[in-house]
Design goal:
Length: 371
């Protein structure tokens, strides 16, 4: 709803304020991943979490398609209004979402947890197995930020994840912005120290319908990237899947060093990079909630998402400003950061493939010791 409010911004200050409020909604998006993961068995969690992520791609294609028809005629204000409409449906659907049994157990709410489990069993045409449900003591089991750094190995896990999330967000949104910038310039070597236009920031260069078509094509690259993740994540494991895709993405970005005026070639290079980083990003969205126990799962994912936003804030200055100063250094920087993320993933202390979600921090520590 805040996003739709930006349409009524009377000036730039109001735009900034309303844009800030949009951040609250984006911050809550990650918790849908946590909720969904807590309803899935370990054997197919990677598959189904990747499958549902295709809705993200459809959403991106929706926005670009709306921009294709709306921007040339009605302008950016109506683009925001139309883009925000699916949020109204989402808000209405939230009422029907059941709370996770993992969450109720961690909070000591046995009856609510049993109600959720009965609903799941009924939906699947099953009955609950015999036994007693053990729950936490209540508020004392609710995690704190400090528990993300409770011991040496947990500290290593959290620290590496924060860097990986920052790096992957920096690269992912950098590729998104590079797509529009390079298409607007016409080729991957548009700016050199000899031909920089010092007045290029005085006016906007609007995208043509051809540009929107190319952006949709590169956006559709996320489909094969997610399909790769879908096919290998429950077999190769989370860490290997993410690391390989980041490494290949770095290689794809380096292809932009080839100075080409061919729009088809440029689209292919960006298609590869966008698909690979998108598939890797989805895999890290699966890994992160799996590695933390219930009472800090949302906090862990939320913290990583917050650090990722810093990467999002920085990347426009690279992809849009620094690109005009040095295309070579810009491309090299994105490839290098992607490579560092691939290396960092290798050093994560625990692999979560086939591992049940844990409810207590001590279970995570036990898993770390056995790794």
């Amino acid at each position: 709803m805040f996003m739709e409010g930006k349409r009524f911004s009377p000036n730039y200050i109001w735009m900034l304020l309303l844009r800030g409020l949009v951040g609250f909604g984006i911050g809550g998006t990650a918790q849908t991943v946590v909720l969904y993961s807590e309803f899935l068995p370990s054997t197919v969690r990677g598959f189904w979490m990747t499958l549902v992520s295709f809705s993200w791609i459809l959403g991106v294609v929706w926005v670009v398609a709306v921009g294709y028809f709306v921007m040339p005629t009605l302008g950016w204000r109506w683009l925001l209004v139309i883009s925000a409409m699916p949020l109204i449906i989402f808000i209405a659907c939230c009422y029907f979402l059941p709370e996770s049994a993992y969450y109720h157990v961690a909070c000591g709410n046995k009856e609510a947890a049993l109600d959720t489990l009965k609903l799941v069993a009924k939906t699947n045409g099953k009955s609950l197995p015999p036994g007693d449900l053990k729950v936490g003591s209540g508020s004392g089991d609710r995690g704190t930020f400090v528990e993300l750094y409770s011991d040496r190995k947990t500290t290593i896990t959290t620290s590496l994840l924060l860097f990986i999330w920052f790096a992957m967000a920096f690269v992912y949104y950098g590729i998104v912005l590079l797509t529009t910038e390079l298409f607007a310039k016409g080729h991957s070597c548009a700016a050199t120290p000899a031909n920089i236009d010092e007045t290029c920031f005085d006016s906007c260069q609007l995208l043509t319908k051809k540009d929107y078509t190319k952006i949709i094509i590169t956006t559709l690259a996320e489909f094969p990237g997610h399909l790769i993740t879908l096919g290998i994540i429950d077999y190769a494991g989370r860490k290997l899947t993410i690391s390989i895709q980041n490494m290949l993405c770095a290689g794809s970005i380096l292809l932009l060093f080839i100075c080409t005026k061919s729009q088809i070639t440029l689209t292919v290079f960006l298609f590869l990079a966008r698909g690979l980083i998108s598939g890797a990003f989805q895999a890290i969205y699966i890994y992160t909630p799996e590695v933390y126990p219930t009472h800090v799962r949302g906090m862990g994912l939320g913290t990583c998402g917050s650090i990722a936003r810093i990467g999002c804030i920085i990347t426009p200055f690279v992809a849009q400003v620094f690109l005009d100063k040095s295309p070579t250094a810009t491309i090299a920087l994105y490839a290098f950061v992607c490579f560092l993320a691939a290396v960092a993933i290798i050093f994560l202390p625990i692999e979560t493939k086939g591992r049940n979600l844990v409810s207590q921090l001590k279970e995570t520590k036990s898993a770390l010791k056995s790794s």
